[in-house]
Amino acid sequence: MTRGKRICGVLKTIRKQVADANEIKYEPRECHHQGECRGTCPACEAEVRYIEQQLDIRRQLGKAVAIVGISAGLSALSGCGVKSPKVDSLSAEKSELTAQPQAPASQQVMIDTAGIDDMIIGSTGGVEVEPVPIPNPYYSAPDTTKVYDVVEQMPSFPGGPQRLKDYLSENTHYPKECKESGVQGRVIVRFIVERDGNISGVTIIRCLDPLMDVEAGRVISSMPKWNPGRQNGMAVRVRYILPVNFRL
Hints:
The protein is α+β, with helices and mostly antiparallel strands. It folds into two domains: 3-122, no CATH class; 147-246, TolA/TonB C-terminal domain (2-Layer Sandwich), CATH 3.30.2420. It has seven helices and seven strands, in the order ααβααββααββαββ. The protein has helices at 3-21, 42-60, 70-76, 85-99, 161-171, 176-181, 210-221; strands spanning 65-67, 120-122, 147-148, 185-193, 199-206, 229-231, 234-246. Strands 3, 4, 5, 6 and 7 form a five-stranded mixed beta sheet that branches. It has a two-stranded antiparallel sheet with strand order 1-2. β6 (229-231) and β7 form a beta hairpin. α1 (3-21) crosses α3. The longest helix has 19 residues, at 3-21. The chain is elongated, with a radius of gyration of 25 Å. The termini are far apart. Mean pLDDT is 73; it is low at 69-134.
């Protein structure tokens, strides 16, 4: 990996830490730049602007702002190593942040950042302003009709994995003919968890015995509503695969 891309990766990590420390929703976008990286790109600058806007909103609301590593953190907020005018203003705010009362210890966020300056926490005081929606240059609304394979928050059975195992064990009926002939094994079922948690599109993708296949499809189709998967905070359709075991 070139030096430029290594630096870009480190700065993305720092931006992620700054965002997490301030409860800002942010996931670094994978870099697809081909060739030598010079340390800056439009995608990085878009991420920077988004974080800057969200930090500004927190300041206007009088909330504590956590800045991880002033020297490294400000470089991260400038994209991939190239300062923007906003960085100069953030740098000037360093003295203001340190001069103002620190947030209570219970509100301070400590982040392990080896080789980075200490975190500075400041508050602008009780300035009451009406939150103003700001266009998000990084996130776009997910396609609610698309069926996803992986999302930020995967769907889950109500009660968790153990409750799902219990449900399948208690509600799967072993076909009498298969039990008498000693057939056992596993049927693999694929289905879709819809935005409202309902189950649809049940498909057997690994067969065992026609009777067992039908039973596996039945028990999956009859499951209660799941907690739907979410992408960027919105419920979306997610494809899921489960095994249904038949053991004597």
